[in-house]
Specification:
Elements: E1 13-14, E2 20-21, E3 30-34, E4 52-53, H1 58-65, E5 74-79, E6 86-90, E7 96-100, E8 111-115, H2 118-127, E9 133-143, E10 155-159, E11 165-169, E12 175-177, E13 182-187, E14 193-199, E15 215-218, E16 235-245, H3 260-278
């Protein structure tokens, strides 16, 4: 099925190489994008359970997947136990800040994450290992996990309950994956964290079906860390997540495209250049304000 762009959904900014897309950092292979500033995924306040969270790349993803764009948004998964275990807020610059208590947590599934649509999950499942995917995350760790705390991911792509991992982002801010095409991390002067990774392999044996897998982005561990990890988790602000099919992105070689390694390198360079601008003086996320997790012990 196709789609028609009109009104507020019409792209107004060209991407590199003169391609008219819904965000200047997108490519022809962009499948998912959340950024609080974007009109296609903006929302007021904090998410509630089952709230639809816009995917700013859904129009481009619809072309790649051959589906209607309305099927390619995210859905919020939010669990709040009491008033002292988890605090969810928007930072002064719009980031999604999830503070998890390191004193009062009594259950393991407190969380605020966005679950991806099954169609996108299935596409990514089938893409690897024959193809490759790139992911970029902008976040800030506002309180580190306690030593020996959980390794459960804040963001993961097609990570099954059997432990076979396609890609995951640890609460401390690092990206991990099997045999990466490349990976890069850096901090801004104020402590925001930039991460990219390119993946074209599974860790362990690929599951036989995507039914037991999930696609999640978020600012907190996904609520599957087990009670032994209560009161040990990190707190984080999520600013941007972008996911790309590197076989379709066409960023390298002046927009004509190249190998998946060339595409990953071009993706990383474009994302990092913009991150540096947004978190430097005068940038959209510079000087952000948020609740100090120390006040929510």
């Amino acid at each position: 099925m196709g789609f028609v762009l009109s009104g507020a959904d019409a792209p107004t900014k060209p991407s590199p190489f003169g391609k008219l897309l819904d965000d200047p950092l997108m490519s022809e292979g962009t499948l998912a994008l959340w950024d609080p500033r974007h009109h296609l995924c903006a929302f007021t306040g904090v998410p509630i359970q089952s709230q639809v969270i816009g995917n700013a790349a859904k129009n481009q993803a619809a072309i790649v997947l051959g589906l209607d764009a309305s099927l390619l948004d995210f859905t919020a998964s939010v669990t709040v136990t009491g008033t002292t275990e988890i605090k969810i807020e928007r930072s002064g610059k719009g980031g999604l800040h999830t503070i998890l208590s390191q004193v009062n947590e009594t259950v393991s599934n407190n969380k605020c994450v966005f679950n991806g649509p099954s169609a996108l999950r299935d596409y990514l499942f089938n893409l690897v290992p024959s193809g490759a995917v790139g992911i970029c995350i902008w976040q800030r760790v506002t309180r580190s996990a306690i030593a020996a705390g959980p390794s459960a991911s804040t963001t993961h792509l097609v990570s099954s309950s059997s432990g076979n991992v396609f890609l995951w982002a640890a609460p401390g801010g690092s990206l991990n994956g099997a045999s990466p095409l490349g990976t890069f991390s850096a901090n801004s002067a104020e402590g925001a964290r930039f991460n990219t990774i390119g993946i074209n392999a599974w860790s362990g044996t690929k599951p036989g079906s995507s039914n037991s897998t999930g696609l999640q982005i978020g600012g907190s561990p996904g609520g599957v860390t087990g009670n032994a990890n209560n009161n040990k988790k990190s707190s984080n602000i999520l600013y941007r997540v972008q996911i790309e099919d590197l076989t379709k992105s066409k960023r390298s070689n002046s927009g004509f495209g190249g190998t998946v390694t060339e595409e990953y390198n071009a993706f990383q360079a474009a994302m990092y250049a913009q991150f540096q601008k947004e978190f430097a003086a005068g940038g959209a996320f510079y000087g952000d304000t948020f609740t100090d997790p120390a006040t929510f012990p």
